[in-house]
Amino acid sequence: MVRMRRIAVAIVGLVMVLATMAAALPSSGSQAATPLPYAPPGSDFSTAPGPVVSPAPGPVVSASPDSDSAAVQFATQVLSEAPIPPGAQLWTAAAPAALTAPFVSIGVSGLTDLDALYQVNEQAGQALQSYVLAGLPQGSTVGTAGNGFGPAGSWIGFVVSLPTSGPNESEAQLLYATTQLADGSYVLRIDAQVVWVPDAAPSDALPPPGSAVLTGYTTISMAGPPSGSLTVDLGETDSARLANAINTLPLAAAMGCMEASALYTITFHPASGSGPTDVAVGGTCGRAVDVTVGATRLPARSDQGCTVLRLVAGFLPAAAAGTRSLLAEC
């Protein structure tokens, strides 16, 4: 059975994670499930990976009314390509208490999560990690791995980050987690967690500017506001270059980050008679570019390629070392 939900605000972190523990405590509630047709009995998933198939015929998707169909489609694709250990059986009963929720989530809003359950013969340890990586695209990596316990029971799991392509696929990862049953077997939960960013609408574009004031900083602090502001006045040509560069950026996923520091700010002033409001732009954490037109905040843009940051650094004097030094991270 496949379930899907859209998480409005993702929760980050592992609860009571003990990264060095290697065993999970038993629970109860085993129920027979339908074997997957490709899995030969007695297969050992620590050897060569088996075929990658859809984890369930005709996924049953239950989404909230505001769920984006493109995000659901992306999550379904990621889950359908998740390597499943040979010998796995679909788990059709309710999820064991320890697996009723993903053990970790991407730290962004607008997260779409699709999951499936199987009964397997091995826990989500190193052997399963190796098997999964062998069946995924090059560039996939194991990130978070560990185990934990609590009132609901114990689990062991790991997260695989997947390569993405195009401006819409912001994040994609697979979560594998197991809890042990009374008969010694395990229930495996696989989550596909994705963030799909829609295309920018024409109404999200900055209006044509007549001039701009660019502010950079001598010092950037990730723990507080920047210091040592330096401003540069830009004419219509340079202002238009910056505005056009921002307008070509894809939309950014809304990130939850600890950094409180602005990286730079740009205030665009309209040409005479071309617009009623100023436009304020600020570079923030995660290379997001926040845009406010008057009192209206537009969707953030993603400057992962540092297109706007390079222009900003080129306009600033050497004394704005804090802002200019950010190029070293590009």
Any overview of this molecule?
By secondary structure, the chain is an alpha+beta fold. The protein folds into 2 domains: 2-196, no CATH class; 202-329, Dna Ligase, domain 1 (2-Layer Sandwich), CATH 3.30.1490. The chain has 5 helices and 14 strands. Strands 1, 2, 3, 4, 5, 6, 7 and 8 form an 8-stranded mixed beta sheet that branches. Helix 3 (236-247) runs antiparallel to helix 4. The model is unreliable at 6-67 (pLDDT under 50).
Overall structural domain count:
2
Write down the overall geometry.
elongated
> Which strand-content bin applies to the residues?
25-35%
Radius of gyration: 24 Å
Order of helices and strands: EEHEEHEEEEEEHEEEEHH
Q: What value does the average pLDDT take? A: 76
Largest sheet: 8 strands, mixed
Cα end-to-end separation: 42 Å
* Regions with little confidence, pLDDT below 50 for 5+ residues: 6-67
Multimeric status of the protein: single chain
Helicity, in percent? 10-25%
Give the number of helices.
5
Structural class: alpha+beta
How many beta-strand elements?
Answer: 14
